[in-house]
Amino acid sequence: MTAQADVRQHPSGSTDGAESKDPQPTPATPAAPPSGTGWTAVCPLAKLQPERGVCALVDGEPVAVFRTHDDRLFALHNVDPFSRASVLSRGIVGDLGGTAVVASPLHKQHFALESGVALEDSDVVVATYPVRVVDGTVEVGSP
Amino acid sequence: MNARTVVVVGHGMVGHRFVESLRRLDTDDAWKIVVLAEENRPAYDRVALSSYVGDASAEDLTLDEHSDPLVELHLDEPVTAVDLAARTVRTAKGRDVAYDELVVATGSVPFVPPVPGRDLDNVFVYRTLEDLDGLRAAAEKAVSTAGAGRRAGVVVGGGLLGLEAANALRQLGLSPHVVEMAPRLMPVQVDEGGGALLARLVSELGLRVHTGVSTSSIAKDHRGGLTVTLSDGTELDASVVVFSAGIRPADSLAREVGLEVGERGGVLVDERCRTSDEHVWAIGEVAAVKGRTYGLVAPGYAMAEVVAERLTGGDGRFTEADLSTKLKLLGVDVASFGDAHAATAGALEVTLNDPVAGTYSKLVVSDDAQTLLGGILVGDASNYETLRGFLGEKLPGDPMSLIAPAGDGAVGVGIDALPDGAQICSCNAVTKGALVAAIASGEATTVPQLKACTRAGTTCGSCVPTLGKVLASCGVEVSKALCEHFSQSRAELYEIVMATGLQTFSEIIGQYGTGRGCDICKPAVASMLATLAGGHVLDGESAVLQDTNDHFLANMQRNGTYSVVPRLPGGEVTPEGLIAIGSVAKDFGLYTKITGGQRIDMFGARVDDLPKIWQRLVDAGFESGHAYGKSLRTVKSCVGTDWCRYGVQDSVGLAVALELRYRGLRSPHKLKSGVSGCARECAEARSKDFGIIATETGWNLYLGGNGGFTPRHAELIASDLDTTTLVRTIDRFLMFYIRTADRLQRTAPWIEALEGGIDHLRDVIMEDSLGICASLDEQMARHVEGYADEWAAVLADPDKLERFTSFVNAPGTPDPTIEFVDHLGRRVPAGMKDGQPTDLAALGLGGVPITDGARIPMGAPA
After folding, report:
1. Phi/psi of residue B237, each to 5°?
2. How many C-beta atoms lie closer than 10 Å to residue B229's C-beta?
3. B239 with B153: CB under 8 angstroms?
4. Is the Cα dihedral B142, B147, B150, B155 positive or negative?
5. Could you tell me which residues come within 8 angstroms of residue B322 by beta carbon, excluding any fewer than 6 positions away?
6. Nearest CB to A95 within list B518, B811, B815
7. pLDDT (tens digit, 9 = 90+) per residue, B749-773?
8. Smaller CB count within 10 Å for chain A: N or C?
9. Looking at CA atoms only, how far is residue B482 from chain A in angstroms?
10. Counting runs of H as helices and runs of E as strands, what totals does chain B give?
11. Tens-place pLDDT, residues B379-424
12. How open is the CA angle B406-B408-B409, to the nearest 5 degrees?
C-alpha cells in the first residue's frame, strides 16, 4: 500500500504555480461526484495550510489531506479507528522521533502520515491514498 | 475463615492508625475489628485542629475511612463496662460485644486546673471540633459587637497547644493573651534562651505573653464579658478564656475495671503495650508505657504499630519515643528534638543566639562533641529535618558550623551525609533508608508516590520538602521538558518567549527547540503567544497550532460534532437570551443541557453549522464562552444581596465583573471561579481555581480549588479584602500562574508544587517579594484592554470562515458519518461506542421523556 506522493516528485507539482491561482476555496473541479477510478480534485494547493489538514469527499469516503512544512502531501482516511469518528483532518500535524504524524483530536493517538500506522499500536492502520498536484490543484486518487 | 475479634475502644488518630496497621499486616484476614467510639464523628486529624479555625472544614480533617468488610465502626457508642473474665464489653447503648483482644485507645482529656469560674459560659478547652465550634461562635459574637481586634481572649497555658489556641483566637478576630506558669513559653520544648526569643517574636505579632504567673480566678464582669485575675494581681478583660494547660489520660474506664494504672495516670503497659490483663492492650495518650505517658501523635502511632504486629505474630516493641516537634506558630518556626534540655550526663551545648536576625539555635552534643543528642531551633527551623536525621549519629563537622548562618563558614548538611537510619518522617517513623529503598525499587519516582508507598509526610507534612531532596539525592530527576521538541519546561519557555518577544512558533522552535513540534508543544506555545503577543487565536500561523477545539472555537464531542456554549457572565441570562438560545437549538437540532458552571451547552453541531449558529447568537448579543479553550470558563454566583435574605454583598455584580475581566484569558489549563454572597457558600466558590466569599466587610479570597479527578478545596489567601485589592490580587495570581505553571497543570497542583506553597504565593502576589507585581499588573491590563470576541471576529473574516466545512471539495454536503438516535428521549450520537448507557429501564425510566414539554427535536437541521 503506497500512499504518499511528494509534491516535488510530480512533474506538474509546483507551489509557485499554485499560489498564483484562483484564491477562492472552490476546487478546480466542482463538488466531486464519486469517480470510481482516477483522481478527485480536493482544492488549490495554496488553500492547504502547511501543517494542517482538510477533509475531502473521495468516492463517497471522507479523506484527510495534509501538507507538511516541506510541502509533502499525504492523504489518509478521515475516520479515527480508535474513536470511529470522522475527525483526523482536524488533528495537529507534527513529528515524533522524526516521523511526520497527525494526532487524533479526540484521544491524541498519533498516525504516521506516510503509512497510516498508529504509533501507539502498530496493529491499527488507517488507509492511505495517493495524492498529487495537477496545475496547482491537489488531487487524491482511489486507493 | 473463623476470624477472631479485636475490639478497639476509641477512634482518635491512634485508634484509626491501629485499625489501618492491623488491616495491612493481617494478610490472612484472621481478625475482625470492632471500633467503639465516643465521638459522633470518625477519626480526624487533631494535629491540624487549628486549621479548622482557618479554612479547613471538618471533612478536610477527617482521616481516610476504613473501607473494609472486616472493620465495623460504631460512632457515638462509648464503652461503659468491661468484663475481663468473660472478655466482653458493654456499650452505652446497652450492647454487649465479645472480644478476643481489647485495645484501649481512649486518648486523653484536657486538664482544667481548679480555677474559680472555670465553669462559666465562654470558657473553653481546646480539644475537639465541637470545642472549636463553640469558641468560634463566642468569638464571632464578640467581634460582631465590638469589631475585630477590640476584644481579648485569654489562653491559660503557654505550651505548644496554648500557642496554637492563641493563634486561633487571633484568626477569629480577638486579641490574644497567653498565661503560662513556667518562666517561659513552650517549657517542654525550648530552653530559656529559645523561650525568650519566642516570647519576643510572638509579642511582635500581637500576642501578649504573661509568664511565671498562674490564673487565680475568672469572673463575669458587668458588661457580659469575663475578668481574668492572675496571681500577680493583673486583671485582664476577655470575651473568652481557653484552657490548654495540659492533658490527662482518659483512663477512668481502665481504673473501674481494675487494670493497673501508672503513678501519674494512664493505663500501665509494658514494651509490648500490654496491660496487666493479657488480653487487653493500651495505645496512645491513654497508655503509660512503663509509667510514662506521651502527648504526641508519633509515639501513639508507634504503639499502634507495636500492637498490630503483636496480634499478627510479630514481636514489636515500644522502646523509645521520638518527641521531636516542629511547628510554625504565627509564622514563627519552633523546633525541638532529642535531648533538647541536655539531660544526658556530660552533654555539651552549642548555642547561637542572633537577636538581630531573630534566630536561636542550640545543639546538644555528647561530651566528645562527636555525636548529636538533641537541639532547639527558634525563628528559623529550616535545618530541622536534616539535623534531626543526625540524632545519635556522628556529626559530619564541627557542631557550630551546622547552625552557623550560610556564608559564614557553614558547611551545611546535605541529605547525602545522612545515615540510612536517620528518621526523615517522625510521625510515621520512616527512615532515609526506607525512602531510598522505595526509590531504588522503582516504586516511587515522585514525592506523591513516595508518600503513598512509605506513608512519609502523610501526617504533619513537615518533612515533605525533605522527601524531594531525598529523591534528588538518589538521582531521580523528574524531566521537566515540555515534549521531545523542547528541553525546557513550560515556565522556562514562557520566560524565553516573554524575554525575546518572539511571536511565531516557527521562530521559537527554530531557535530554542528541535524538529517540527507536536500536539503537546504547539497548543502550549499558542497559549503563551495568546497572553504575550495577543491577537486572534486563528491569525496566521497560530491557527495551525491550535487543538481542534480552539481551531473551530467549539468543543469536539465523541462523534466529531461540536458543542456550543455562549457566555452567560455570572450565570445571568435574560428571558430574551433564553428564547434566542432555545430557538437556535431548535432550528439546528441541538441537544441542550445546563452546565455545572451556570451556562447552557448545545450539543451536536456540525462543523458547517457553527458559523450560522454563531451568527444568530452574536446577533442576539452573545459572545464566545471559551468553553473550548484552556482559559477562563465561568464565574459562578449565587444571587447575593439582590434577592437573598442572607446575602451580605453583591455576588452577582462581582461575578459578572470578574468574568468580563478575565474572559478570553488563555492559561495552562481551564480556569473556573465562583462568588458566594455569604458564608453559606451556595456558589461553591471553594471548589474553584479562585473563589470569593463575601464577608460583612469585604471579600475572602480562596485559591487553588477544583473538582474533577482529585477534588480539592481552595485555600484562604486573604480575608476581608476591598474590591480593588481583591481584583488586583486575582490579576496577579492568574498572571503568575500563567507564567510559571506546567502545561495542563491546574492551580491546585501548581500551588502545591511552589516551594513554600500558599504562603509563598501570598508573598509574591501580595507583598511583591519577587518584584514582579508591576509587570503582572501591566500584562493583565493589556489583556483586559485587548479583549475582543473571537466568534464575532471569525464571522467578520471570510478567510477564517473558510475552514468551517465538512468537505473542502463539496461544501454544503453534510458529513454522512454523523447520525443521531433517540435514547430515552435524548438526542445522542448514533452507534459510536460499544457499551452504550446502562439499562435504565430496570429503574422504570425506560422511554420516559425527560421533560414535560415537547420532545427534544430529532430531525435534521431546519
Report:
1. -85, 130
2. 17
3. yes
4. positive
5. B298, B299, B302, B337, B423, B426, B429
6. B518
7. 899 888 788 989 999 999 999 999 9
8. N
9. 13
10. 27, 39
11. 888 788 778 878 888 887 777 777 766 543 334 456 676 777 777 7
12. 100
B809/A94 CB distance under 8 A: no
**Is the model's pLDDT at B458 over the cut of 50?**
yes
- Among A35, A92, A109, A113, pick the best mutation site for testing chain B contact (most B Cβ within 10 A): A92
Q: Which of A41, A60, A105 minimises the CB distance to B809?
A: A41
Minimal Cβ distance to B808: which of A43, A87, A105: A43
Verify whether the Cβ–Cβ distance B809 to A50 is below 8 Å.
no
The CATH number of whichever domain residue A14 belongs to comes to 2.102.10.10
CA distance B683 to B677: 8
A2 within domain boundaries: no
Burial class of A86 by CB neighbour count within 10 A (0 to 12, 13 to 18, 19+): buried
Residue appearing with cell numbers 448514533 = B830
Residue B600: in which H helix or E strand, if any? strand B600-605
> Between chains, do B808 and A47 touch, taking CB under 8 Å as contact?
yes
A interface test, pick of B809, B813, B828 with most A CB neighbours within 10 Å: B809
Q: Is the pLDDT of residue A7 over 50?
A: no
Answer whether A119 touches B (CB < 8 Å): no
Is A116 inside a domain boundary?
yes
Domain count, chain A: 1
What is the 8-class DSSP label of residue A125?
B
Is B556 within 8 Å of A52 when comparing Cβ atoms?
no
In chain B, residues with a C-beta closer than 8 Å to the C-beta of A25 are 802, 805, 808, 811
pLDDT tens readout for residues B651-672: 999 999 999 999 999 999 999 9
Supply the range of the domain harboring residue A58.
7-141
* Residues 22-51 of chain A whose Cβ lies under 8 A from any Cβ of chain B: 25-27, 31-32, 40-43, 47, 49-51
Give a yes or no: residue A33 inside a domain: yes
The residue type of B697 is T
How close B481 gets to chain A, by Cα (Å)?
15
Distance of CA B272 to the CA centre of its chain: 36
Place of cell 507538511: A68
Query: Is the distance from CB of B32 to CB of B5 less than 8 angstroms?
Result: yes
- % of chain B residues with pLDDT over 90: 56
Given CB atoms, is A88 within the 8 Å cutoff of chain B? no
